[in-house]
Write a structure and sequence with these properties.
9 helices
Length: 217
């Protein structure tokens, strides 16, 4: 593993690789430990300041910027980053650093100020961990909605297989069923009522016959 290579462990490139790997795995503490184990190299300290600010670890970010200023007290970029970092946990110290920055900064060029793009300037600022997490959640939600939409389309395209009765041949279904099979018999078009028996057969009570002679009075 990268941890076992002692000869390359303190090299800036190796430290950067370890930090990127840990950060990709979501182990922010291990990435911060890898940065903390490095020597006071300007490149490493700049990377540490950006890393801690990106994850909202403002005290560690401020410490990295202080160490940069110890190596180069005229580093105005580190001083500006120190103002931003300390403003999250120590506003009084941030104001002191801001006063130092205003004194050390060169006069403002109005022409260059007018040429600045506000959107580009906003994108260049370090982002907090909450905003990064919010963007990640939005991308995850959009990806989930897209996957569900794709699954729904696939589900709609899939047709259920028709199950026929046993012995039924769909290629030779035979004569079609009578469309009036559900109607009562009297309402069907082929219904013919039963003819009444018009023969005049008189029937009396049970046991009697028609035309039986009456007994003499």
């Amino acid at each position: 593993t990268l941890e076992g290579i002692e000869a390359l462990r303190s090299k800036p490139a190796m430290i950067g690789a370890r930090v990127a790997l840990y950060e990709r795995l979501g182990d922010v503490d291990a990435a911060a430990a890898a940065l903390a184990s490095a020597d006071d190299d300007i490149t490493i300290l700049q990377a540490a300041g950006e890393f801690h600010a990106r994850h909202g670890r403002w005290q560690e970010a401020a410490d990295a910027q202080r160490r940069l200023l110890e190596l180069n007290p005229r580093d105005l970029q580190a001083l500006a980053a120190l103002v931003i970092a300390t403003s999250h946990f120590d506003p009084a110290a941030a104001n002191e650093h801001l006063a130092r920055l205003e004194i050390a900064s060169p006069p403002i060029d109005e022409t260059a100020l007018d040429a600045l793009d506000p959107e580009q300037l906003e994108q260049s600022l370090p982002r907090s961990a909450k905003s990064l997490q919010r963007d990640a959640d939005v991308r995850k939600r959009d990806a989930g909605e897209q996957d569900s939409s794709t699954r729904l389309k696939k589900k709609r395209r899939t047709r259920k297989k028709v199950i026929y009765p046993k012995g039924f041949d769909p290629a030779n279904p035979g004569p079609p069923p009578d469309p009036e099979r559900w109607l009562p018999k009297r309402e069907r078009s082929n219904y013919r009522p039963r003819r009444k028996d018009k023969r005049g057969i008189s029937r009396g009570p049970q046991g009697s016959t028609s035309g039986q002679a009456r007994p003499d009075a």
